[in-house]
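pinging the channel bc i need a second pair of eyes. not urgent but kinda urgent?? the chain im working w is below, pasted from the shared doc
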Amino acid sequence: MKVPIVGWVVDERYLNHRLQASSLGGIAGGLVALLLLGYHFYFNHVWSWDLFAVVATILGVKLAVMGWCVLND
Protein backbone atom coordinates (compact mmCIF):
# COMPACT_ATOMS: atom_id res chain seq x y z
CA MET A 1 0.00 0.00 0.00
CA LYS A 2 1.33 3.42 -0.93
CA VAL A 3 0.84 6.58 1.08
CA PRO A 4 -1.29 9.04 -0.96
CA ILE A 5 0.77 12.25 -0.66
CA VAL A 6 4.36 10.99 -0.66
CA GLY A 7 3.74 7.49 -2.01
CA TRP A 8 6.48 7.73 -4.59
CA VAL A 9 9.08 8.17 -1.81
CA VAL A 10 7.63 6.45 1.28
CA ASP A 11 5.87 3.10 1.51
CA GLU A 12 4.10 1.31 4.34
CA ARG A 13 7.16 -0.70 5.40
CA TYR A 14 9.13 2.49 6.08
CA LEU A 15 6.27 3.90 8.17
CA ASN A 16 6.01 0.67 10.19
CA HIS A 17 9.76 0.68 10.87
CA ARG A 18 9.61 4.32 11.93
CA LEU A 19 6.67 3.53 14.24
CA GLN A 20 8.55 0.66 15.88
CA ALA A 21 11.72 2.73 16.26
CA SER A 22 9.93 5.66 17.88
CA SER A 23 8.00 3.32 20.19
CA LEU A 24 11.18 1.57 21.32
CA GLY A 25 12.90 4.94 21.71
CA GLY A 26 10.09 6.20 23.93
CA ILE A 27 10.17 3.08 26.06
CA ALA A 28 13.96 3.26 26.42
CA GLY A 29 13.81 6.96 27.32
CA GLY A 30 11.11 6.33 29.92
CA LEU A 31 13.10 3.47 31.41
CA VAL A 32 16.27 5.57 31.65
CA ALA A 33 14.32 8.42 33.27
CA LEU A 34 12.72 5.98 35.73
CA LEU A 35 16.10 4.47 36.61
CA LEU A 36 17.62 7.92 37.13
CA LEU A 37 14.66 8.88 39.31
CA GLY A 38 15.19 5.76 41.43
CA TYR A 39 18.93 6.39 41.61
CA HIS A 40 18.48 9.98 42.81
CA PHE A 41 15.93 8.89 45.40
CA TYR A 42 17.83 5.83 46.63
CA PHE A 43 21.33 7.31 46.87
CA ASN A 44 20.70 11.04 47.33
CA HIS A 45 17.34 10.78 49.13
CA VAL A 46 15.97 13.56 46.92
CA TRP A 47 12.94 13.44 44.64
CA SER A 48 13.90 14.66 41.21
CA TRP A 49 10.63 16.26 40.12
CA ASP A 50 11.80 16.97 36.58
CA LEU A 51 12.54 13.27 36.00
CA PHE A 52 9.21 12.39 37.62
CA ALA A 53 7.49 14.76 35.18
CA VAL A 54 9.25 13.08 32.23
CA VAL A 55 8.23 9.58 33.39
CA ALA A 56 4.64 10.70 34.06
CA THR A 57 4.39 12.37 30.64
CA ILE A 58 5.70 9.31 28.79
CA LEU A 59 3.36 7.04 30.75
CA GLY A 60 0.38 9.34 30.23
CA VAL A 61 0.92 9.68 26.49
CA LYS A 62 1.47 5.94 26.05
CA LEU A 63 -1.73 5.08 27.96
CA ALA A 64 -3.74 7.76 26.15
CA VAL A 65 -2.65 6.49 22.73
CA MET A 66 -3.34 2.88 23.72
CA GLY A 67 -6.82 3.85 24.95
CA TRP A 68 -7.53 5.84 21.79
CA CYS A 69 -6.45 2.90 19.62
CA VAL A 70 -8.70 0.50 21.56
CA LEU A 71 -11.72 2.78 21.31
CA ASN A 72 -11.26 3.65 17.62
CA ASP A 73 -10.29 0.25 16.26
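so The mean pLDDT is 82. and Helices lie at 12-44, 49-71. — does that match what u expected or am i reading it wrong
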